[in-house]
């Protein structure tokens, strides 16, 4: 997808407006209450208090266990179509475990050392913000920032080199959800933004946002197509219409991982949303077909060694013709003859292919 500077400028302007919406809402709430704060994010609404320990455990260790369990279920059910070879397993496992070791000290240094130095005396400045305000502020700031981080890694050739590892897997599933180059992972833009907002006093809303987002993102990558019943049964079509435009679903995100964009189903050039699919709808990068691609990955992929996938450009591939080797350039996907894409507002159900 070529970088259209005029469209980019327009979309960035819209993004600034979206970023400002929760800030304006919080300001108006404060003014309408004559500056009196009746609640803060430090105290959960009563109906959410009982789930706080659950969310805390999910954030600390629960998602690791959940991902492993669901990954085993997918593999046992044969949903990887025998493509999870020894080399692919090694890439997925290392990309899953390594960030658990690399990121905590990086984020700890950023939160405990860098932020107090860069913005001293501002810790817990936003502690007066009500829980709902902090929740929507972080939900929008975190996910919209990740949308742009993801989109630019597809539209800027230099940045694509650090994201192609995620698109190398010839299958979808829990195993490949964390499959990223280490530079893409360490520079993951929104984690630093969320860490900053947490430092400023929005830690509890951040916990709830990140747990909910993790569920949605894992579900969108899963080979278990949980959204198919919404397309199959007519009574659920209105729910499907809303759901697939608000959050990422297997159908919309699998399309993003297809190995071709010329069949009317694959949409490598869009569907960048992580938690919210709304961003793709707003910025015209959405394609909703309710179909699933027949194949995934990139045509140039040659079953790379784990070190070339995870540690490029420190270590390069030794496979001849590999895009991860020196002096080799490759397009991310093959371009077949273009077929008119199905409009975003389609309501036609067609049986999904998995």
Automatic annotation (TrEMBL):
It is found in: Endomembrane system. It is a multi-pass membrane protein. The chain crosses the membrane at residues 12-30, 61-80, 101-119, 125-144, 182-200, 206-226. Keywords: Lipid metabolism, Membrane, Oxidoreductase, Transmembrane, Transmembrane helix. Pfam families: FA_hydroxylase. InterPro entries: Fatty_acid_hydroxylase (IPR006694), Sterol_desaturase/TMEM195 (IPR051689). GO terms for molecular function: glyceryl-ether monooxygenase activity; iron ion binding. GO terms for biological process: lipid biosynthetic process; membrane lipid metabolic process. One of its GO terms (cellular component) is endomembrane system. It comes from the Bacteria. The keyword Metal-binding does not apply. Residues 136-285 form the Fatty acid hydroxylase domain. PANTHER family: ALKYLGLYCEROL MONOOXYGENASE (PTHR21624:SF1), STEROL DESATURASE-RELATED PROTEIN (PTHR21624). This is Sterol desaturase. It comes from Flavobacterium seoulense.
